[in-house]
Design goal:
Length: 378
């Protein structure tokens, strides 16, 4: 495990919809890229070079700067055996580590259970966004899911302090006596009690927060700001999660403008997040994972790209040994998988690296086996 004075924290940003790997880390030095992307491509003179073969999309300038500083690991050709091009099934596989069957527990839910087996802190895991990603869902594991941190709480619409306290007492009395009445009722009751325990604590985070960093007004930026607020409030949160707007990276049409806008928002938000942590001397124990459910097809469709495989993931942080990990998948026709990039890094190996080398956990029961790890943790 990496040496750190504070408990290691993992932040996950899900790029929902299937990010186009070829137009993110661009193989500009390969003529087959231009051949396959007559319309949906990044011009060679716009690429931010990593070497004479690949480079960053120009909208990833802030992340490229972090890469040049040695703090970004690029995991090339990431995926899993027998790739599935369904958003729902592929994301489910990434969430549960179950490529062969429908999983019942999320990998991060299992991790949170290992971190806090006695559920001493209902804020060990926090999600920002509507609903709860499957990766965080495991029976009996409390995870707060926040739509708006500034207004988060239970019964916050009641303005009078006495009236709200009275209403919360009623709310608690509904849930607490039901515990022990059966598995389903126990789960619902415990969820209600956990919400009560965590809501008012979590809502104090913005009150404690002050920063000179100005985040963008887009959803990703605001949620990354919320993640910074919770981390800086020192509530013992170890896993923080958020998602780019639902399926926003599903760029079947109008990709060039949409993809540029998305990565401009994401890249700036991640950079602002780390600047915020640095301003508060609170970044050394935070690693950020950016992932997506699959890549896109090698050949464009004239306006966008369709579902493919062989994507990329990024791992960012002070504790990260920056660089390229794995080989960039070949674009040669006879080495494609039905028109898609082959994967050469199993995503469960990426998870295992984060779980063992960063979080200090046993990855095998969480990922469902033993997978080859990478060496991007310093």
């Amino acid at each position: 495990m990496a040496s750190t004075r504070k408990d290691p924290v993992l932040v996950v940003l899900q790029l929902s919809g299937g990010n186009d790997a070829l137009n993110t880390i661009v193989p500009y030095g390969d003529p087959l890229y231009m051949d396959n992307r007559p319309t949906v491509r990044i011009a060679e003179d716009q690429v931010l070079p990593i070497n004479n073969y690949i480079g960053f999309n120009p909208t990833l300038g802030p992340i490229k700067q972090m890469y040049d500083e040695g703090n970004v690991a690029i995991i090339q050709g990431i995926g899993y055996p027998n790739p599935n091009r369904s958003h729902f099934r592929s994301m489910d596989i990434w969430h549960t580590c179950e490529p062969e069957k429908v999983g019942t527990e999320g990998w991060l839910g299992r991790a949170i259970r290992d971190i806090d087996p006695n559920k001493d802190n209902v804020l060990t895991g926090v999600n920002f966004g509507r609903g709860l990603p499957r990766s965080l869902a495991s029976p009996g594991v409390p995870v707060a899911s926040v739509g708006n941190l500034e207004t988060y709480g239970v019964l916050t619409g009641i303005e009078g302090g006495d009236q709200r306290t009275e209403a919360l007492d009623v709310f608690e009395n509904i849930y607490s006596p039901a515990i022990g009445k059966g598995a389903v009722i126990d789960y619902l009751s415990q969820t209600g009690m956990d919400a009560l325990r965590g809501a008012d604590v979590l809502s104090t985070a913005p009150e404690k927060y002050s920063s000179t960093v100005e985040y963008g007004s887009n959803t990703v930026a605001q949620y990354m700001r919320n993640i910074a607020q919770v981390h800086l409030a020192e509530l013992g949160t170890r896993v923080l999660y958020t998602t780019a707007p639902y399926n926003s990276f599903d760029t079947h049409a109008g990709q060039m403008a949409a993809h540029a806008r998305l990565w401009t928002d994401v890249s700036s938000a991640v950079s602002d997040f780390y600047q915020d942590l640095k301003e508060h001397n609170a970044g050394e124990n935070v690693v950020v994972l950016l992932f997506t459910e699959f890549g896109r097809r090698v050949h464009d469709n004239g306006s966008g790209t369709d579902h493919g495989s062989g994507g990329i993931a990024l791992v960012i942080g002070d504790a990260v040994k920056g660089g390229l990990y794995g080989e960039y998948p070949s674009l040669e026709a006879d080495k494609l998988l039905e028109g898609d990039l082959h994967y050469n890094n199993d995503f469960r190996g990426l998870y295992a690296t984060l779980l063992e080398q960063w979080m200090g956990l046993d990855s095998k029961p969480i990922t469902g086996g033993s997978f080859e790890q990478l060496d991007f943790i310093a």
